[in-house]
Amino acid sequence: MAIAIMPLLLLVLVMIGGVALQIFLSKRESKWAGLILPIITFVISLLAVLASILGATVGVGSSTVTNLTTGEIISQTTVTPNISYFNVFLTSLYVFVLGNIPTLILLAIYAVCRKSRKKNRELDMMRAQELE
């Protein structure tokens, strides 16, 4: 039982660390620092979509066996699985949407942190003007 909990605990710790890192990067002066993690998760989601498309089309093609001494064809097979391109599209769309949930969460954290940073900067400017 304790062994089964370890991967879940590790996943939770990685998620907490990722959120903390996103908050830290989003509060930096450079606005690009906070976009690093969302860009990485977006690229990973695109790779997942590509993998789902390639996985659906594996096995499409043909193979030929030839006799090496005479060069004649011994057997030839063509493998064409029953692929519905609409199903491949729906699966890819599903993978894309699910894969971008972390991207949307990270972008929401970024937006909240940048908004509070902008608000604090405006308050500082107002205080500086009052002191003049």
Tell me about the largest β-sheet.
2 strands, antiparallel
- Largest sheet, spatial ordering of strands: 1-2
Tally of discrete structural domains: 1
Number of helices: 4
Protein structure class = mainly alpha
Give the proportion of residues in helices.
Answer: 55-70%
Outline? elongated
How many angstroms does the end-to-end distance come to? 66 Å
In round numbers, the mean pLDDT is 84
Number-wise, the strands total 2
* Poorly predicted sequence stretches spanning 5 or more consecutive residues: none
The Cα radius of gyration reads 26 Å
SSE topology string: HHEEHH
Beta content comes to: 5-15%
Q: Would you mind describing this structure in some detail?
A:
The protein has 132 residues and is mainly α. The chain has one domain (2-131). 70% of the residues lie in helices and 10% in strands. It contains four helices and two strands. The chain has helices spanning 2-26, 36-56, 85-99, 101-131; strands at 61-66, 73-79. Strands 1-2 form a two-stranded antiparallel sheet. Helix 1 packs parallel to helix 4 and helix 2 runs antiparallel to helix 3. The longest helix is centred in the C-terminal third of the chain and has 31 residues, at 101-131. The radius of gyration is 26 Å and the shape is elongated. The N and C termini lie far apart (66 Å). The model has no long low-confidence stretch (mean pLDDT 84).
